[in-house]
Amino acid sequence: MRIFPAIDVLGGGVVRLFQGDYGRVTRYGESIGGQLEAWKEAGAAWVHVIDLDGARRGEPDQSLWRRVAGRGVAVQLGGGIRSAADAVAALGCGIDRVIMGTSAVWSPGVLASTVERASPDRVVAAVDVRDGRAGGQGWLDEGREFEQVVEGALEAGVSRFLVTAIARDGAMSGPDLELLEAVRRRAPDAELMAAGGIATMDDLRELAARGIDGAVIGRALYEGGIHLTEALAEFPG
Predict the structure, then answer these.
(1) Model-level pTM?
(2) How many CB atoms neighbour CB 37 within 10 A?
(3) Model confidence over 150-201: pLDDT tens digits?
(4) Which residue of the set 53, 86, 128, 203 is catalytic?
(5) Are 190 and 159 in contact (CB under 8 A)?
(6) How far apart are CA 184 and CA 224, in angstroms?
(7) Is 63 buried (19+), middle (13-18) or exposed (0-12) by CB count in 10 A?
């Protein structure tokens, strides 16, 4: 299982939201580059970067792409990337994988075009689930049934999914194993990355035991519930 330390960016700083709520923000620092370097120095091969401003307004911050690319660590990035042109532009800036959530929910044709232009290896479909529905547009819309979203993404040629339990995101309450298993049943051959609620090393061990391919960790790293060097030593990816 691969570990992805998270850097969520809002208002130019490093933050975490609680349950996807832009009104419940914890700020952890002002240096995005400094946080990326810290994860790199701890041994991370990948970092997971989300442009929360871009996700909310539907337009990515291309200057952020340039700030995190080419720093000696692979970058998986999302937030506001809602067209194949934006996805290809981000990849052209040195981003290694793009995450697309709104397109996965509402525009699987855009997702298919992106996969065709960029290759399946470089596109991740975000399935951000609350009450059984996968939301897009910065988690501010009504969403669609997550099963439909997964099926549409598979038909678009996606082979990697990021599955987030929004109600657990930032809550340190453990991952939603039922949700992950439900997605796995619908996408048995896809690479699944889990996010939301991961709080302890035991949570990581449980995910690995269930065959989850990756884990995105945020608040637990910032607040000391999980130490990145320890996690990477046990799960080198």
Answers:
(1) 0.95
(2) 14
(3) 999 999 999 999 999 988 877 678 999 999 999 999 999 999 999 999 999 9
(4) 128
(5) yes
(6) 30
(7) exposed
